[in-house]
Amino acid sequence: MLEDRATAVSSPTPWPAAYPRGYAVVDVETTGLARDDRIISAAVYRLDGRGEVEDHWYTLVNPERDPGPVWIHGLTSDVLTGAPLFGDIAEEFAARLDGRVLVAHNAVFDWQMIAREYARARREAPVRQRLCTIALSKELGLPLPNHKLESLAAHFGVVQQRAHHALDDARVLAEAFRPSLRAAAAGGVRLPLLECRPLTEWSERSVPRQASGGYGGHPSGSWRTARRRPACPHPNPGRYEEGKRLKQGMRVAFSGDTSTERDLLEDRAVEAGLHVATSISRLTSLLVTNDPDSGTSKTVKARQYGTPVVDEAAFGQLLGDVEPADG
Fold first, then answer.
1. Looking at the whole model, is its pTM more than 0.70?
2. Bridge partner list, 276
3. What are the b/e assignments for 13-32, b being 16+ CB within 10 Å?
4. Beta strands in the chain (DSSP E)
5. What confidence tens digit (pLDDT) does each residue in 49-91 have?
6. What is the DSSP code string of 98-145?
């Protein structure tokens, strides 16, 4: 574990009073991208309210399984065998996050990996909001060729030394986040903050894993399995109209990062009598997305078809008063 402290430098930029007072810039390396993959290293740069570095921290984590794509992160079974388990570092990790906005590049991934590890440990991460630097770069209109961390770093002249090493990735992101934050403050830009809700869906059961690189199968757990939902019993009444109520039978699609776990959000829609659609068509009543300008296939088709679009917060309010289907 590493830790360092830097003297915070005051900035003359007029500062929006509503901005958070502290940030935790986070990067985690993992055994893979699936729901049951594990964290193998984590780094946190703590920043003050104006983006100045207060300290940083790094640790390896023993995933108790195959380390995954070693050719990407460079962490072998031999290196990780003697590392602490996540439960051993959970308290110190939490202390680094407590009371701060979690900042990450593609923050939904890092947050969900962290939230799942805490759920396995029967604990909750003390994080209530997150900020994705991809979303912030879009809010600022930065002329980036793509949304990779290396492109954001190059834009601000930040030199990366060890890509896919959690500590260096977190350092690079912290150095790129500081000028992004100042630009947002100078322009009065609303920060794209999303709510973080702890996961509670973890349940123990044995899931065999393919042995590779020194870790064999192990008792693990499972997130709620995907399942086929019953067909919506109500006819589609057509498109949602702004200012009106949702109506049972409306076809609702979701796209992009959501504060609430997607499965849980879809369950709420189904329980309200809505039809959850996996794609956009001319029959879709509503698209729910927090990033309507993301350029995903769903948002592009929604624009083509003129499908109404609302964000997650507005959808949550609409769910509280859904009009019954005719008859």
1. no
2. 252
3. eeeeeebbeebbbbbbbbbe
4. 2-5, 22-30, 39-48, 53-60, 101-104, 129-132, 193-195, 203-207, 218-222, 251-255, 275-277, 286-289, 309-310
5. 999 999 999 999 999 999 998 988 999 999 999 999 999 999 9
6. TTSEEEETTHHHHHHHHHHHHHHTT------EEEEHHHHHHHHT---S
